[in-house]
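Look at one such:
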Amino acid sequence: MTKTVLRIDASARTEGSVTRQLADAVIDRIAPTQVVSRDLTQTVPQIDGTWLAANMTPADNRTEDQRATLALSDKLIEEVRAADTIVIATPIYNFGVPSSLKAWVDMIARAGVTFKYTETGPVGLLEGKRVIFTIASGGTEVDGPIDFATPWLRHVMAFVGITDVQVVRSDRLMVDAEASKARADEDLAKLAA
């Protein structure tokens, strides 16, 4: 049984969002004991030069200002670490993820914290978790040739060590809404608690 779920909502729509509805259905199905929610409509800032300088400074040498600059990033990473399962609810906007989700990823993908570099390449440090993507699109087929969101999300999660990935999709909603709903129902049915 899943104990703790971290729910990440990336849709700019708070009402009528298909990805948020799918995330609700996923959480009902896997029945966690605790859900921590992070709604990315409550802005996660873009990284900037000040953030990069703080991140590149060894932890023991950081100033008070640098620690404050990294405080949100540290909090977001702790939310991921504390979760058994992460549910990322995202639409596909213009073939990719919303900028708010990219900003969240930039905050949690930190060398020496969530991944490390080795002689044989990068190694993720957030192992032993699973992630479930709930993805909706108007016309883009999930994992189709013009979907740059889903493969990127899989890659980023693997990069930080999370390779147990499942997708619940309601894609091509504007092409065939009934078929899209059927795909989502089929994916939901495959989810294990």
In short: DSSP finds seven helices and seven strands in the chain.
